[in-house]
Amino acid sequence: MYRGNSLINIGICGLGRVGKSILRHLYESESRNVKVVAIKEHNSLSYSNEEYVRNMAYLLRDDSIYGKFPAEVNSEGCNILINNEKIPVLLDSYINQVDWKKYNVDVIIEASGNLKNIKYVRKCLGDSVKKAIITRGTDEADITLIHGVNESKYNKKKHNVISVSTCTGNAFAPIANFVDSNYKILAGFVSTIHPVLSDEKMLDGSHKVFALGKSFRNIKVVDTSVVKSTIEVLPHLENKLHLESVSYRVPTDIVSAVHAIIKVKNPPSKDEFCRKISDVRGNLKDIIGTTKGFHGQPFVSSEFLLSKYSGIIDLNWFSITDNLLRLHIWHDNEYGYVSRVIDTLKIL
Ligand SMILES: NC(=O)c1ccc[n+]([C@@H]2O[C@H](COP(=O)([O-])OP(=O)(O)OC[C@H]3O[C@@H](n4cnc5c(N)ncnc54)[C@H](OP(=O)(O)O)[C@@H]3O)[C@@H](O)[C@H]2O)c1
Predict the structure, then answer these.
(1) Is the distance from the beta carbon of residue 112 to the nearest atom of ligand 1 less than 6 Å?
(2) Per-residue model confidence as pLDDT tens digits over 26-49
(3) Angstrom distance (rounded) from CA 125 to CA 144
């Protein structure tokens, strides 16, 4: 039997963009209290499982966006080796078919996005697995936590399946909460500018959301759940923020932005807002960042790569007219988001 000797043993389901970013974050921060002891993937190709795991190691070792993994990566049979430590890769079809107990997994992180895995995640809870974290919004969760808004609502006895919401929800909700608490939100439109995701097509092909099946080189306008995610943790904003928000999918590979036009009851002056938001403390300190760029010039998306903030307000683009506020918020949709997944592990 494999025996991890750390405080919390983690099993990751899905080693795609988010799964790999979680591993990277853990190794970069040299976390001693958390150890990944099993990875569940599925062999979607027609070669052997060993070859599939070799391919996974290849992708993990050198990432096209983040570069070299912060530890030695290799593979041996159906194991990924990180600094020569074996992490078994389990290639069963669904999450509930894995014998998590065999690997002493305490917490599962569901990062495949597969709806069946999410549906079955609760079945994995038992003698070994005590908690599961889901890296998207879902009704299957006992609670949705967005740090900087409602993480204090976590109740160890009641909440076993925890959703960490969406990346854009994490970027926007803490800032919406700040604006509402200080200036009272009356109404608002929210849009996102989002890079390509793994399920989009290189060339035209079929996709459940037709526009996403068009070549990634287009700018595509599609629905997004940024307001739905926000309202889930700030229900009093329902009927104020317009639910039908759109996402502009753009042909970049990382860093997202949220653009919001918000009507408030008590508009601040620009100076007051900038001062207050730049000076957030307590549970917002590591969540909301601000930037003024460099030499008075704004940064561009790639400059926010590897940022651990949930959302960074670009003060260059903040403006007020009457009682309308315009906000431009940057976030690394992978690294910023997984920083909150790790924060969630800490509060468990
Ligand atoms: N990317 C982001 O910016 C971001 C941010 C926040 C939250 N999320 C959420 O996180 C989840 C994962 O997103 P992602 O961008 O990381 O997607 P992704 O890159 O497609 O990764 C998903 C991984 O899970 C694997 N997988 C699919 N079905 C599986 C199964 N039954 N068992 C085990 N593994 C399976 C996929 O393998 P195959 O590719 O072989 O199918 C892939 O390696 C989604 O719910 C997404 O909404 C994503």
Answers:
(1) yes
(2) 999 987 889 999 999 999 888 899
(3) 18
